[in-house]
Design goal:
The chain has about 160 residues and is an all-alpha fold. It has nine helices and no strands. The longest helix has 19 residues. Belongs to the NusB family. InterPro entries: NusB-like_sf, NusB_fam, NusB_RsmB_TIM44. Pfam families: NusB. It comes from Pelomonas aquatica.
Length: about 160
Amino acid sequence: MNAPQKTAPKTAAKTAGKPATKRAPAKSARRRSREAALQGLYQWLLTGEDIGAIEALGREQDGYAKLDVKHYDALLGGCVQEAADLDAILARHVDRKTTELSPIEHAILMIGAYELKHCLDIPYKVAINEAVELAKSFGGTDGHKYVNGVLDRAAGDLRPVEVQR
């Protein structure tokens, strides 16, 4: 008669030979602000709804307390208020009218251009990278490459001294 074989615990067998999975780092308050502003701008671009109503809806969302509220307000309000100027900046670097861009990419580019223009405490490479990360999370396939190229060229216009360093 054969003796029962001892086996390793199931949990060890499942993970044997597999690399440990890393948890994604917690999102910063600024990143959360950009994501929330992106949602609001997307809604505004699609519906043309009053920005006050969109902002009020944003304040009711779960996670609002985790935002950098000042940055969120600046991005959402500033992008809407300066939409024509931001589109003019972007128009020099896009391959079609900004109104023909996907609303997500358009909103991401507006946020990136706004940060490049007004948020001088944020290095231009960080502003571009944050926009690229938004595009990876919310945009279409390879949209992040388009966002990167457009904002990299726009940075040359908006922050020429910083880009030349």
